[in-house]
Amino acid sequence: MSDKKTLFINNVEVEYTNEKTVLEVIRNNGFDVPTFCHRPDLTQFGACRMCIIEQDGKWIQASCTMPPKEGIRIETNSEKVRKIRKTILELLLANHKRECLTCNKSGNCELQKYAAEYGIEEIRFPKLEEKDYLPVDSMNPSLVRDPSKCILCGACVRACSEFQGHSVLGFVNRGSNTRVEPMNGRCLSQVDCVFCGQCQAVCPTGAISIKSSIDEVWKQINDPSKKVVVQFAPSVRVALGEEFNLEPGENTIGKIYAAARRLGFDLIFDTNFSADLTITEEANEFVERLTKGGVLPMFTSCCPAWVRYIETQHPDLIKHLSSCKSPQGMMSPVMKEFLPKYYEGYTKENIVVVSVMPCTAKKYEAIREQLYGETDFVLTTQEFAKMIKAAGINFKALKEEQANSPFGQYSGAGTIFGASGGVAEAAVRTAYYYVTGEELTNVDVTPLRGVDANSRTKDTIIDIKGKQVKVRVVSTLKEAEKSLKELKEGKADFHIMEVMACPGGCVNGGGQPTSCLDATIKEKRAQGLYEEDKNLEYRKSHTNPDIIKLYAECLGGKPGSEIAHHLLHTTYMDRFTGSYKDIK
Predict the structure, then answer these.
(1) ∠ CA(324), CA(326), CA(332), 5° rounding?
(2) Residue 288 burial by CB count (10 A; 0-12/13-18/19+): exposed, middle or buried?
(3) CA distance 194 to 415
């Protein structure tokens, strides 16, 4: 018996099966309606009313919360519907800080887009006066919050709550005085925000945007006394192309290297290399804990939002964090310390390190007390794309180029860092070798893969010569909190846990091109990383020849050496007491 039913959209009979809302039916059958508050990965809210439809020529309904019903007739573009939508847009614009030409999200603003599509040329209602503008919050390193551009869609509130379980943002006041802000009207830097950027990723306007470092980076590039070197995170390669109309998941790393040289960067490196370095150190640390009775489970420490969450919410669990810096945190001091050994004219004092990251929290990481001065500037994927466009570079036409040596080669294990589960999978590949002295034959640990909403917690058991090691992978802090509760209740049976704050991992980071309207984009990006991993000559971090060379020539010959610990490991701070905690 078929589960298919039919209804009519604009006089066309269409089929539907398990769609939960009329909006889904509309979009699955070649039609569309505008939305502000609807985000596929978030619960439905029905706040903006832009998705209204006319049912059976009588009723106006919000399609994002309306369940489909067999036989009904829906008009998505009737005269009545268009008139209501235009009125909604006029009301939003009347109460909106309209500085579109200088707004950070100009060209990527849904309010701007729909105003143009619906031909809004005049607004009948009194406009928001400058004296009524609310204060802009830009006192943190990652995000800018401009409440006068907020349209009260609630997407940021839901993202913070549903992804991170954190509820840093919320609605305050009532009626025309309603607004979104942190508790007691504080700045984001004054509350326990982890700077993941998922709020800005779902914001349809410029109410929350990325704090730009573009002008500062241009200044460094144009300073002849500086040697500006740049590193690119794994997931940038499968997302940047979207800014130039390429398909999500297409690996453009060769073009990225070429673009960076044309922008004026002196040396180009890949954070995949230091991802291999991170794994080499982290796997060594895990094996020591596993075999010598150290603190378990061990938490990975690559995600700065996760690290800040532990420091602010669970400082009693800091001892579970790996002492290893993130790949960004390792690459920067390695370049400043050792590039002068390989390149004439480079000194520790004149090297400026820029990193291009998918993550707004990496901007915060760069100014952490323990890491300050190592990474000088962090650009998000979006910011780097803006630099390419501003420089008039035809990205699609660029021929692929290579990174510089000696930190240019990387393994597939470094590549998959960008997807949820990738860090744990890479660690397994190397930890197996450290314990057994043998190479893992099947390096594809597929149970740890998956970036959709149904795979935000994944467990698998790895048999290491009779030792059963349970690996857990968690995506979003809300899911991580469940595992922390298990740990505190003495029920945790896993040995190592990878946590990424962003749903799906870094491929869906807060600084990536907008993907909140299509839940499949992060899956395509992840697949692009796994595809590169599959095709690389080296697929385990410890087999990377450049990693082997770095240890032999600069890092004391082996993981965990004194100099490696000095450069590549860090401490954490109990944010309640302000005291540092070394991880032994």
Answers:
(1) 105
(2) middle
(3) 25
> Is the overall model pTM greater than 0.85, yes or no?
yes
Q: For 42-69, what is each residue's pLDDT tens digit?
A: 999 999 999 999 999 999 999 999 999 9
331-363 b/e (C-beta count within 10 Å ≥ 16 → b): bbbbbbbbbbeebeebeeeebbbbbbbbbbbbb
In whole angstroms, give the CA distance from residue 24 to residue 31.
10
Dihedral, 189, 191, 196, 198 alpha carbons, nearest 10: -110
Amino acid (1-letter code) at residue 488: K
Q: Which string of b and e fits 477-494 if b means at least 16 CB within 10 Å?
A: bbbbbebbeebeeeebeb
Structure tokens at 561: 């050496």
Query: d(Cα 508, Cα 528) in Å, to the nearest integer?
Result: 13
Tokens of 87: 């009125």
- Complete edge-to-edge strand list for the sheet that includes strand 496-500: 298-299, 496-500, 467-475, 457-464
Average pLDDT value over all residues in the chain: 95
513 to 204, 246, 305: CA distances (angstroms): 13, 12, 19
CA gap 237, 507 in Å, rounded: 10
CA-wise closest residue to 378 among 272, 514, 477, 236: 236
Question: To which H or E segment does residue 289 belong?
Answer: helix 271-292
What radius of gyration do the chain's Cα atoms show? 25
d(CA 135, CA 235): 34
| SS3 state of residue 473 | strand
What pLDDT digit, counting tens, does each position of 318-368 carry? 999 999 999 999 999 999 999 999 999 999 999 999 999 999 999 999 999
CA nearest 500: which of 323, 347, 303?
A: 303
Cβ atoms within 10 Å, residue 501: 31
Which tokens hold the place of 574?
A: 């109990």
Query: Could you give all domains of the chain from N- to C-terminal order, each with its CATH number?
Result: 5-77 (3.10.20.740), 88-210 (3.30.70.20), 215-582 (3.40.950.10)
